[in-house]
Amino acid sequence: MDELTLVERLRSEIPEDIDVTGAERRWRDRALAGTGRRRRARRPLLLAGVVAAGCAGAVTVVAVTHRPVEPGMPPANVAAVLDQAADRAAADPVPRPDQFVHQDTVELRRVPNNGRWYKDRNQSWISVGGTAPGLFRLKNWIQPRPDEYVPLDGDSVIAPCGQRAPIDRPYLGDLPADPDALLRLLARQGDGARAERQWEAASDLIARPAPPGVRAALFRAIARIPGVRLRTDSVDAAGRHGVAVTRTRDGVREELIFDPASHRYLGRRDVITRSGDRLGARGSILFSSALMSTQIVDKVPKPRAGVAVDAC
């Protein structure tokens, strides 16, 4: 690991909503006053470690990362949040190949071209083994205007997966249950810098059903992506508050939200971070979701009339 990567990871231990500029300046002034010499090139690395430890209230960064957190209290850093989420996920039941995972999700989106919001409810029944048809059910909660494109209500049958790559399947049953192996796989997806590819792929996978071991490994893999930060408060599409693991790119902060007490994944939110950006005003929300429930079931409901068939 090079020094720039280490600095970025150390600084990611500091929650985004804590301003450490003053602490950095005071530390630097005391250090320079004590030595009478100019700061060496490697000083920022040492500074980042001291500030991270000071803000977290511990002597060393390693001790902070693995410090247990009392239920209902905000975790100290990204690693603490995702370690707890991974431990919680690893204890979930393992479905049989002949079963289905039912997920109920609420999403809030901007209507293209006019900025109006629409809300929908997505329900999915995903085949664990990938050999049986699944079902996707969409329900809009607003009446679209004539000039708006809003996906129509209805059912879609999800075809069996066949020979599709494991990462492209709705159920992530064949992905590696190892954080390092997952990071290598994520880096082979999409475009851009390595960390951007990993984050984008992980953000897509986090909402899909997966075996407990794979889900736990994904959470721990996300903690190792450079540039990932922590926000101590965020809100999902259902209005639930949680802590958020975030990464900012192209003027948008993408937030993965977790319940601070149960450590379950709640949903996602995308927030504009630059004033005057073409996407909207700073602080505006572009998208949010809420995973309301996940259940293991034995059957899929009968599709409604006019059903479409989608690829796996």
UniProtKB/TrEMBL annotation:
Keyword set includes Membrane: yes
Membrane-traversing stretches: 45-64
Keywords from the named record: Membrane, Transmembrane, Transmembrane helix
Source organism, top-level taxon: Bacteria
InterPro entries: CU044_5270-like (IPR047789)
Entries under NCBIfam families matching the protein: CU044_5270_fam (NF038083)
Protein name: CU044_5270 family protein
Origin species: Actinomadura napierensis
Lineage per the UniProt record: Bacteria, Bacillati, Actinomycetota, Actinomycetes, Streptosporangiales
